[in-house]
């Protein structure tokens, strides 16, 4: 019991010290906002989870209207506000009581309310409870620091909002605090945040700081250019972030030139991702962490697969997932704007880069650090050259690590260093100061009459039914009926319509989205018609998806398997998965999760495709077709990556060289190590020495 009491007192002192530091920053004018789009429900759930961990015997009831409510705010400060209000309410609630937290849109922004079932606060004393250290014995309750509500008021003021206690709801007891916040922070304009009045009583002058190359960056011009979409929230200069970004660029200049994808590329991607995530203001968001984990798996394809086409697709998907996680986006427009923001960050981040450079010149220890770096590099170069000239093995080791610095190699290395370093710095700024990518969420104006949306949807349903009727006719009428009616073979027939079916599937999602937005939902009949018509359309779309996938299967059996055909199969399957998601959202009337699910599932399907080894899959299916029909495109098989070599090597000796001639033993160094090439290496060496390649043999085999 004594140890527990000591721990409680230590925790109380820690909280008090943290609160005092926050208020000291306010007094010094050093309080800054780092604004981003905050999903209110997620923030409240996190704060409630922390409040539950305190062990108080109260229950929490969270209600957010609408569930997708979001607002521009500083997530850390807003979390501090909610945590203090919950702490105050839970300490005043009796055992088994309920703390109710509600958030909703208002005409001027949004409102947060926290109500408890405690003794309440007299109306005459409701203003004094926000003073520091409290002026009411019951204001903070037992165990409080007396600063919680003062900090809550400070955070509210910092966002340009108001906070006060109001009368509890009818037939309710306890205290009820209301916080009204604007859609975007409106800081006081009399004294800018982050400044303070000069101290004229101190005659000691600070030494002048030399002007930096970035000192002339016109910050107000940048603010005018980007406006409310991307305000500069006073992100302080960060020397570590700049050095880390440049370090990743230098690593890229060493690793990437003159090498294939491999272990070195993965290390580079890991370093870049670690830097960006480490400086992200949203790094504690579950969605951002999920995106980071998926990006890690997508980056790992560079050491697992040799097929560059799937590796590049995985890296592009990883980039899309990365920017979505950095801005903590929730909608499709947010993901698109996040992708646009990454290259624009090179321009928007110039003022921040200038502040970072000025911070370097203002560091007193920078000269000592620079001298340390110079002397360390000089020592490594001198002793490295001596040992390299004295020992051949050491020289080989050094040559594998130190890049070639001849002029023809230096230029591409320098270019890659600058390019990659700039890209990582832009992503770092995007992580430190994400833009306001979420569109303003307001009530959608529905149509006045049901037929305005129902008639177009019903007609689309009718067209789908006619198409499926035609498909049924082909199935039951047979290939003879098809050729007699259209003059096309079945293989030509299925190839003719596959692209159109894919486009039709995508357009169906657009129709469902538009109808769901414009349809009124005021009565139970409205909901019934909405679910019935759109549900039927989704079911018909799933049948179309199945038809498209079957058409592609028949076409591949007739003409062979290729990368593009496999990729289109995966894309069509992903569209079908989205249709299922739309149906689930329609049943629950909660679609806020759908855009994130679509993004993550699309990237996940690419990752799954890489995991099944697509080039080996294509090779195996073409060889199976060769066994059945005697038809194969040897020249296409030669163009597959080393991932397919273990499958192609199983061919009979008389034709194996027809498939493997496009490959050969490699000479990768350790930075190019790749599992696909590593598995193919011994097989290639066992066949390569005895090859007597003959174009005539392969041409004869290809002709059957």
User: How is the largest sheet built, in terms of strand order?
Assistant: 2-4-5-7-6
Q: What class, by secondary structure content?
A: mainly alpha
User: Tally the helices: what do you get?
Assistant: 27
Number of strands: 7
Q: How much helicity do the residues have?
A: 55-70%
Bulk shape: flat
Radius of gyration: 32 Å
Main beta-sheet strand count, sense and barrel state = 5 strands, mixed
Provide a short characterization of the protein structure.
By secondary structure, this protein is mostly helical. The protein is built from 27 helices and 7 strands. Helices cover 63% and strands 6% of the residues.
Descriptive overview:
The protein folds into four domains: about 15-180, Histidine kinase-like ATPase, C-terminal domain (Heat Shock Protein 90, 2-Layer Sandwich), CATH 3.30.565.10; about 220-370 and about 380-430, no CATH class; about 450-610, no CATH class; about 620-700, no CATH class. Helices cover about 65% and strands about 5% of the residues. The chain contains 27 helices and seven strands. It has helices at about 1-30, 40-50, 75-90, 135-140, 150-160, 220-225, 240-255, 265-280, 285-300, 300-305, 310-325, 330-350, 350-360, 365-390, 390-400, 405-430, 450-485, 490-520, 525-560, 565-590, 595-610, 615-630, 635-640, 645-650, 655-660, 675-690, 695-700, and strands spanning about 35-40, 60-65, 70-75, 100-105, 110-115, 160-165, 175-180. The strands form two sheets. It has a five-stranded mixed sheet with strand order 2-4-5-7-6. A hairpin with a 2-residue loop joins β4 (about 100-105) and β5. The chain is flat and about 100 Å long. The relative contact order is 0.08. Residues about 5-10, about 135-145 and about 190-220 have low confidence and may be disordered.
């Amino acid at each position: 019991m004594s140890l527990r009491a000591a721990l409680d007192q230590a925790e109380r002192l820690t909280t008090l010290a943290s609160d005092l530091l926050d208020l000291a920053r306010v007094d010094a004018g050093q309080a800054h906002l780092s604004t981003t789009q905050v999903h209110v429900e997620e923030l409240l759930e996190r704060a409630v989870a922390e409040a539950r961990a305190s062990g108080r015997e109260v229950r929490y009831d969270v209600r957010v209207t609408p569930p997708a409510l979001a607002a521009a705010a500083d997530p850390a400060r807003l979390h501090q506000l909610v945590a203090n209000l919950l702490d105050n309410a839970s300490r005043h609630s009796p055992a088994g009581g309920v703390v109710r937290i509600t958030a909703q849109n208002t005409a001027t922004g949004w409102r947060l309310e926290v109500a408890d079932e405690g003794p309440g606060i007299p109306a005459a004393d409701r203003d004094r409870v926000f003073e520091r250290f409290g002026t009411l014995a019951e204001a903070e309750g037992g165990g409080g620091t007396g600063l919680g509500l003062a900090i809550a008021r400070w955070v509210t003021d910092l966002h340009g909002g108001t906070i006060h206690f109001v009368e509890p709801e009818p037939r309710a007891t306890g205290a009820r605090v209301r916080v009204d916040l604007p859609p975007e922070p409106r800081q006081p304009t009399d004294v800018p945040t982050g400044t303070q009045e000069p101290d004229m009583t101190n005659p000691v002058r600070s030494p002048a700081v030399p002007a930096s190359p970035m000192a002339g960056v016109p910050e107000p011009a940048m603010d005018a250019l980007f406006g409310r979409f991307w305000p500069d929230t006073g992100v302080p200069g960060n020397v570590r972030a700049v050095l880390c970004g440049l370090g990743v660029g230098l690593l890229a200049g060493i690793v990437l030139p003159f090498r294939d994808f491999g272990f070195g590329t993965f290390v580079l991607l890991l370093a870049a991702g670690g830097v960006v995530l480490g400086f992200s203001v949203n790094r504690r968001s579950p969605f951002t962490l999920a995106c980071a984990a998926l990006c890690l798996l997508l980056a790992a394809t560079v050491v697992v697969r040799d097929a560059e086409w799937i590796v590049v697709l995985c890296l592009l998907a990883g980039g899309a997932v990365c920017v979505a996680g950095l801005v903590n986006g929730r909608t499709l427009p947010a993901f698109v704007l996040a992708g646009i923001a990454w290259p624009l960050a090179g321009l928007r981040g110039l003022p921040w880069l200038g502040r970072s450079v000025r911070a370097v010149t203002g560091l007193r220890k920078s000269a000592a650090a620079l001298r340390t770096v110079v002397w360390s590099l000089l020592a490594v170069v001198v002793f490295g050259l001596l040992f390299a000239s004295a020992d051949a093995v050491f020289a080989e080791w050094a040559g594998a690590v130190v890049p070639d610095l001849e002029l023809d190699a230096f230029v591409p290395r320098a270019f890659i260093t600058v390019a990659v370093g700039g890209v990582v710095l832009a992503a770092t700024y995007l992580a430190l100061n994400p833009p306001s990518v979420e569109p303003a969420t307001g009530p959608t104006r529905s149509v006045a009459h049901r037929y305005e949306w129902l008639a177009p949807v019903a007609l689309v349903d009718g067209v789908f039914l006619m198409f499926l009727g035609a498909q049924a006719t082909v199935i039951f009428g047979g290939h003879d009926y098809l050729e007699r009616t259209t003059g096309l073979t079945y293989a030509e027939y299925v190839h003719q319509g596959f692209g159109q079916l894919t486009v039709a599937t995508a357009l169906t999602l657009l129709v469902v989205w538009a109808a769901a937005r414009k349809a009124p939902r005021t009565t139970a009949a409205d909901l019934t018609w909405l679910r019935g018509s759109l549900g039927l359309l989704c079911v018909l779309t799933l049948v179309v998806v199945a038809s498209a996938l079957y058409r592609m299967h028949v076409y591949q059996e007739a003409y062979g398997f290729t990368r593009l055909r496999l990729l289109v199969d995966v894309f069509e399957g992903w569209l079908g998965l989205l249709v299922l998601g739309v149906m689930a959202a329609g049943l629950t009337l909660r679609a806020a999760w759908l855009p994130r699910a679509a993004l993550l599932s699309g990237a996940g399907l690419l990752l799954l495709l890489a995991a099944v080894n697509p080039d080996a899959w294509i090779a195996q299916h073409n060889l199976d077709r060769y066994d059945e029909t005697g038809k194969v495109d040897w020249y296409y098989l030669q163009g597959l990556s080393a991932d397919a070599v273990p499958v192609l090597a199983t061919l009979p000796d008389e034709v194996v060289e027809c498939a493997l001639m496009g490959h050969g033993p490699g000479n990768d160094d350790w930075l190019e190590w790749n599992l696909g090439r590593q598995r193919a290496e011994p097989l290639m060496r066992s066949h390569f020495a005895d090859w007597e390649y003959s174009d005539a043999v392969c041409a004869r085999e290809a002709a059957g």
